[in-house]
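FORM 7B: Structural annotation worksheet

SECTION A. Query
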Amino acid sequence: MLLMEKHLERWIFGYLRQRLQRLPAPKPSHVLFALCDHFEPLWGGADPSVGLCRVNAWRERYPELGREFRDVDGRPPRHTFFFPAEQYSPDLMAPLAELTRQGLAEVELHLHHRDDDAPQLEHTIVEALTRYASHGLLSRDANGALRYAFVHGNWCLANSGPWCGVDSELDVLWRTGCFADFTFPSAPDPSQPPIVNEIYWPLGDPKRARGHERGEPARVGRRRRDRILLVEGPLGFDRGGRFGVRMENGALSERDPPTERRARTWLRQDVHVRGRPEWAFVKVHTHGAPESRARALLGTSGRELHRALAALGTRLHYVTAREMYCIACAAMDGHSGDPDLYRDYLLRPPPVVS
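SECTION B. Predicted structure
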């Protein structure tokens, strides 16, 4: 029953292999923590006025967390809003741009699409990047080109489920400036790839479906420059649930709030660049726009999250998705020591606009 409900057949063998390879895992010296929000202000078919209220709730209340908590570098919590291209309007984006200017957030690309094709997907992405950049958002590389991180709506990256249609999605993403995908884990959804708890380079044909289901772990001494990176969050098990065990997939909700126990489970999944285990990468996700979820994350649950992270006993660094990618690339290029030095490695942060 558990096997069928959680689609464990998709990932359990990859998980067991990863566990065997990494025992015993050394305690990391630094934890890079990123909260990636699949932020959908028009969730549930909401009217634009409702969407604006949802966005403004974050603009008004998220700075309170920034005043209350700090990481080892003196930085406040940093939220990454993966905003859906199909829900864009200037009014909905402007409050998130304000949080970005305050140093509390960055905005990246989220997209729901179905029965699509590669030319239309490319058009949609380029149009979205232009719109987001008009607010002073997204990052730029050394040549000034727009770069972005991606989350696939409904989890179906590279046609790994019904909500896509584009086998060559990895190729389109790379050609339009995507530096990394932050979609996974998606378990218990059947789109979950067999690779778990990894930062990795996809090795499948980028023009064929599910090209990310084979991969090469990121490691010190080797950084590929011809494809996007996949950055996964924690996926594993902990005690609890109907059968005495629960699946942990790094999803934050009002029904499954953050706790110190969960934070320690995230850390035990040991996501890191091979050869740099002292830098632990913890990427969790949420859908933070609906009112009940926002109340939790901006209130008691949000505060409990940051207290739980502080209780891990390691040097905590709040990072955005872009900063997490930059630090991973710095590790691959052989850098070590304080990861705070590499937040803007390779990619400049979003510009400040008036």
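SECTION C. Observations
Residues 22 and 270 are 8 Å apart (CA to CA). The mean pLDDT is 95.

SECTION D. Sign-off
Analyst initials: ____
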